[in-house]
Amino acid sequence: MGQFFRRRWRKWINQRIPRSDHRVLSQKNIFIVPTGAGLVFLVLLLVMLMTGINYQNSLIYLLTFLLGTLFVAAMHQTHGNLAGLELTVVAAGAGFPASTVPMTIRAQAGPRGTASLRIAFQDQVVEQHVEPGQSVDFRLPLQARRRGYLLPGRIRVETRFPFGLLKAWSWIRPVTAAVVYPRPIEGQAQGSTVAGGNAEEQQRTPQGNDHADLRPWREGDLSQRVLWKRFVRSGDLVVADWEGEQGDPQWLDYDAYPGADREMRLSFLARSVLDRASAQVPFGLRLPGDVIEPDQGPLHVERCLKALGVFGEVRPRSDEPLAHGNRAGTDPSGEAAV
Amino acid sequence: MKLAHHEAAEHTGLPSKSLGWLLASFAVLIVPQWDRLPWWLLGACAVLAGWRWLAQTGRLRSPGKWLRSGVMLGMVVIYILTVDGRFTVETAASFFVLSVGLKWLETRSIRDFYVLFFILVYLATVNFLFHQDILWSLVTLSGVALLLVGLQSVNAPDLPPAFRSGWRRLGLTLLKVLPVVALLFVFFPRMAPLWSVPMVSGEARTGLSDTMTPGDISSLARSDETAFRATFGGAMPPHAERYWRGLILDRLDGETWRQGWGQSFRRPGKVAVDGGVGPLQPDEYDVLLEPTDQDWAFALDGSAAVSDNVVPVDNNLFRFRRPADTTVRYRMALVGDLPQQEGGGLSAQEQQRYLQLPVSGNPRARELAESLREQAGRPADVVNAIRARFHQQPYRYTLRPPAMPDNGVDALLFEYREGFCAHYAGAAAFLLRAAGVPARIVAGYQGGEPGAGGEYLIVRQYDAHAWVEVWLPGHGWSRFDPTAAIAPERIESGLREAMREEGSFLEGNWASPRRYGDMAALQWVSLQMDRLNYQWQRWVVGYQGQSQMNLMSRLPGNPGLQELGYMTAGILAIGLLVAGIRLRPAIERKDPYRRILERWYRLCQRESIPVRNGETPAQLARRIARCRPDAAASASAFAGTINRYYYGGRTGPADYARLRRLLGTMKKQMANGRKTPTPERYARE
What residues of B are annotated to the active site? Predict the structure, then answer.
C-alpha cells in the first residue's frame, strides 16, 4: 500500500518537475509544509488558545493571533524566499569512483534574493545566501560509485528562512549527467601496440626525429623510450626525450591488454592517461568505435577520461517528456521544426 | 561554501548571536515575574545564563556531565525545600523558570534553541495571566519580539546586508499582519471557559484583608496602588457618599475583628470577567477591579448586581463566583436603600452574634458603655452619644498611631486618643456592643479620586476604610462612621486632605506621583497614564464574551457565536486568498501578451495540436495551417502580432485587442475544422 502511494507520489512529482537543467522556481513547483518545529509551534498555539479561553484572557488571545498570523506570513516569506530563483546546472562534473563528483548548480537570485538556500542530494548539503541580483555557484558533491554516467535523481532545493517553522522546497532534476571515470589501475601493456598502431610507425618515429635529448634511465620511464641499441653497445641505459613531441604521438590502445576484461582495460587506460598527463606527453586514445587524436593538456586529458568513463555506457534517457522549451529534447512526433 | 549550518551546529553549537537574543528575551520575559519568584531562583537563573554565555564566548569551560547533574540536583533540592509541599501559582511559576534556568546548561544545538523558544513563548503567555496593564504587556511583547529575531538569526546567521535585518523584517511583517490580527481579535468567538482553572496564589496581594487588628489598614494607607476604577452611568455621587462596602467583620477575637461564622465554602467557578452589556444606564455603574485573589466585590450602599459574575449574599454584600485572580469588570445598579429585614428585627441568634465580645479586657470601655446605656434609653441615643464623644473630645486622626498592645480600646479612648479609622471603628463597635447595641465592622473603601477628565473614579489602596454599622430597631442596619466625627475632611475629600497637617500622606512612598499632589504637571501625566491604562483594561483586556456580543449587536444581522465562527473562518480565508494573489508570479500578472499567448497554447492543446519544445509562434501557426486549414489565416496573423510585440516594431492597445479578436476567431475556426474530416496526414501523427 505504502509502496503504491510512494510510486504515485513519485510519478506525480516527476510530472510536475520534468527533467531539465534549468528551472525557475515558482508557485507551480514549490512545495511548502511546516517543519517539525513548525508543528510543535502550531500545537503550542492551540495550547495558548486554550489558556486564553479558560482564563478569559484577551491578551493571550492577542498573542496567539499575533503568532498565528506571523506563522501564515512566514509561510509567504519562506515561499517568497524561494520563488523567482533560477537554477541552472552549469557543469555536471566528472571524477573518479569512490570520491565525489562536483555538480555545479548556478542559482540566480530572483527579485528578493534567497537567504539560506540549501541544495541537497542524498546526504550532501550545501548552504549559502543568494543575494538579490547575484548568482552563486553551488558545488554539490555527488557520490561517485561506479564508472559511467551519474545522473542524480531529484536534487532538493530548500529553504527554511526566516523562522525555520516552515520549509519550502523544490527539486531540480538535471538532464546532463556527470561522468565517473574508470578507477585507474596500474597495468602492463602487452607488446608494442601501446606505442603505436603498427611496426613501421614505431620504426619510423625515433628515426624521424633528430633532436633527441638523451638522459639516463630513471624509474618509470617506458621501455620503448630506452635506446636499446646504445645499451647493447655501451651497457648504459639511455632514454631519448624527443624534442617536439607533437611529432611523436603515443597511442593508448584498448586492444593492448589482451585477456583483461573491459573494465580492467578501461582502468589500465585511465592509469596510462594520468601517467601521460603528469609526464606532459602528448598521446592519443583508441577505443573501439572512438578515436581521440593525439594531443595534450588538461582538456584533452579530461576528454580522454570521459571517453573511458562512458565507454559502452548508454547515455541515460529520461523516461518522460522533456520540459516545454527545452531544446535538448527530441521531438518524438518526427515533424522537423522549420 | 560551507556545510549546512544545521548539521554543523549539532556539533559546534549555537551561533553566539542567536544565543544572545535568547538570553536577552529570557531576561525581559522574567521581569514581570520578579515579584512572585524567590530571590535565590532569580540569582541562580542569572548565574546559569551568564555561565552559558561565558562558555559560548570561550572564557569559561562548559560544565561537564557531573557538574551539570550536580547543579541540577542542587537546584531541584532547594526548590523542593522552599516549596514545602505547597502548590500555588508562585510555585508553578518558579518551577517553570527553574526548568528554563537549568536548560541553559543544556543548550547546545539548534534543537535546544527551539525547545527554549517554545518554553519562553509560553512564559510570555503566563506573564499575561498576571499582568495585563499596558506597560507590562509591552514588556512581554518585546520579549516575544526578541525571541522572533533570535529565531531568524538561528536560521540565517551572518545574513548579508542585502537582506533586510531581522528587526526590519519582523516589523514590516507585523505591520502587514496587524489588520488581520485586529479583525481576528474582534471577531474570534469568545467561548465560555472550557473548564475551571484554579489559580491559587500563596502570595498576599496588597489589599484589604479579612481580619482587622487596629493598625492593619494603616499599612494599606502607604500604598497608592489602584484598587479599582468605577465609571458611573449618571452623576458621580459626592465623596462623602462613596462608601464601598466589601466585607463584614463581626467577630471580635481578642483585639482582632474577623469575618463571622457561616462563611460558606464555594467551589470556584469558571473564569468570568464579563462585566455587562450595553451602555451604562443612569443608575448603573461599572467597576474594574484589580486582582485581589478574593471573591469580594465592592459596592456602594444600596446597590444591586447587574452583571452575571457577581452574586448578592447576606448583609447586602456581593461576591464573585470565582476569586478575582485577574482583573474583573462587573456592573452594579444603585437602587436606593433596600428594605433591610424591616420589621423583622434580629433573630436571637443574630442578636448573640452582633453583641459578641471577648469575656474580658478593656474594663474602662465596658464601664463607659454601661454608663452610656443607662443615660440613653434608645440604641440611637447610644450611637449619638458615642459620636458626640468622638467629636467633642480631643481625638486625633493620624497615620502614626502609637502601639496599643493591651486593652487597645481603653488605651485609645482614654489614654492616647490618637488613631486611624480601624482604631476608631473597632472602639466604636466595642462600645456599642458593650452597651447592648448590635454592631459590626464594615471593611471597604471610602472616597476615590476622579481620573483624567473626571470620566471615572480611581479608588486606591490608601482609600481603604473601616466603619461601623449598627442595628437600630425600625431602621435596620445603619452606617455609623466614627472617623467622620473625628476627621470630617477624610470623608469629604480624602486621606490627602486629612493628613495635610501631619504630612504623613504616603509616608515613605517616595516614588509615588500621588504623593506630590501639588505638582500639577506630574499629576496630569500620571492621570493620563491611568486613563490610558483604564481604557486598555476596559476595551482590550476586558474584551470578552459579553463585550463582544455587545459590539456585535450593533452590527447588522446581530451575529451570534456561530456566525462569529463563520466570520473568523472567512477572515482567515480572505487573508490567505489575498496572500495567494501576491504569490502569483510577477510575469503572469504584468504581461498581458504573455498571458494571451499562454491562452493560445492552451487552445492548441485542447485542439490536439500540442505545442512542442522550443517551437516559435510562427512554427506553431504553420502547423495549425496544415492541421486546420480554416484557421490558417488567423493563426498566422496572431503569430505575427505576437512576434511584432516581442521582437520590435511598435505596438499599442489596438494590437492587444486584435490578438483577443484573433483568438476568438481561431477558436471558432478550429472548432469548425474539427467537424470536417481530419486530413489523413494529421491522423497518422
Answer: 421, 465, 481
